[in-house]
Amino acid sequence: MKKLLLTGFEPFLDFTVNPTMRIVEELDGMEIGGYTVIGRIMPVDFGTSGSKLLSFIEEIKPEAVISLGLAAGRFKMTPERIAINFKDGPVDNEGNKPIDEPIREEGEPGYLSALPIRKMVDRLIADNLPAEISNTAGAYLCNNVMYEGLHYAKTQKPEMPSGFIHIPASHELAIQHGKIPSWSHEDLAHGIRICIEVLGEENK
Ligand code: PCA
Q: Residue 102, Cβ neighbours under 10 Å: how many?
């Protein structure tokens, strides 16, 4: 069976839980869309998250990679269109706060997602889950991990689709945080299962 690396992130800033963690833990080991899902949690750390992703790819040797991140404040599930070669944003969990730094000096300015993002959005909406393509993953850790995965694929493993999906807060996080829209964990996990199925259909 083909393997799919599914990554989530640990909590960060004032988000005391990261709903991507629970999804990844739940889907880890499941068979979805012709893939065995292998889940891993990433650190919110500009210093290590990129190399961590690459070490997971080299250890697991997946046929595809989907990374997940929390986009607190978003109302919809949002597959990302592009990753940009910048590190910028609020302080990470290790105290790093890069300003306008490139992720890779020799890297392209941006890499387009290699996931079937339009089909994912269409299928999510058909299943009554609000979704749209996002045209920016920001310049924080989610963009960083998306960029690193795509850079690796473009330079070393072009047959491996990779990309990123931002998700809204879970109800659990919204109750603790107080000021963000949220979905049930069940709907979030269902939405990610749908995205993996769509990817599987595209890569039979
Ligand atoms: N979301 C952040 C980093 C970790 C996460 O889950 C982001 O959007 O960059």
A: 14
> 9 to each of 49, 156, 166, how far by Cα in Å?
10, 24, 11
Q: Ligand 1, closest atom to CA 12?
A: 4
- pLDDT averaged over every residue in the chain: 98
**CB count in 10 Å sphere of residue 101:** 13
Q: Is the CB of 164 under 6 A from ligand 1?
A: no
CATH number at residue 43: 3.40.630.20
142 lines ligand 1 (CB under 6 A): yes
pLDDT number for residue 204:
85
Specify which residues 69 forms β-bridges with. Answer: 166
Domain holding 103, by residue range, is: 2-202
pLDDT band at 14; cut points 50, 70, 90:
very high
Distance 204 CA to ligand 1 centre (A): 30
Which atom of ligand 1 sits closest to the CA of residue 89? 9
pTM above 0.90, yes or no: yes
